[in-house]
What we know:
By secondary structure, this protein is an alpha/beta fold. The protein has a single domain (2-164), classed as HUPs (Rossmann fold, 3-Layer(aba) Sandwich), CATH 3.40.50.620. It has 8 helices and 6 strands; from the N terminus they run E-H-E-H-E-H-E-H-H-E-H-E-H-H. Strands 3-2-1-4-5-6 form a 6-stranded parallel sheet. Helix 6 links the parallel strand 5 (127-132) and strand 6. Helix 2 runs antiparallel to helix 8 and helix 3 (84-95) runs parallel beside helix 5. It is globular. The termini are far apart.
Amino acid sequence: MNIGILGGTFDPIHLGHLGIANVAKDQASLDRVLFIPAGHPRLKQAEPLAIVEHRLEMVRLAVSDTAGFEVCDIEAHGPGPTYSVDTLVELSANLGPSASLFFILGMDVLGQLHRWKDPERVLALCQLLVLDRPGEEDFDWDEFYQRMPEAKGRIQVVNAPLFDVSATTLRQKAATNDSLVGLVPDAVDEYIRKQKLYLTAGEGRTAS
């Protein structure tokens, strides 16, 4: 079984995330895609505005009507930041040898792979589905493979459109109570309004 992994803060999840997952699922013939909200994102400058319980619920609502899409809380409740290699080790153990893991990431993130914790182990545990989006700078594959020769044969490029949606913009719109219809699934828009998320810097930090 081919299983895609899409991690992120999902603060909030939006149609761009779902579009990426659909493109990856179709082009890589994935059976399932796991959406994995980070509890404490390692590379973010600040904590997410919405607590992880809210972000998990928004993802659950967003994927509930799509066959093969699932929310996974494997990174949600740890005491500190998690590393991709640790998540992959745990997923591999939980899913068993019949599961082939495919890690979905952008070309910009791929360029930093050598800085990850134990990147060689990451490549041994999964294949990388790399999003090639219009308007991005040309990627220097020769330089990348010189730095990460272990990646040869472990990467599949996915041709993805540019989804012009950003979580930052969505939070700004929600802060002024603007509608997010057409940018997030309707159920997520309704949840944000009901829970009054993002209205102030402190909203959403306590579960309700």
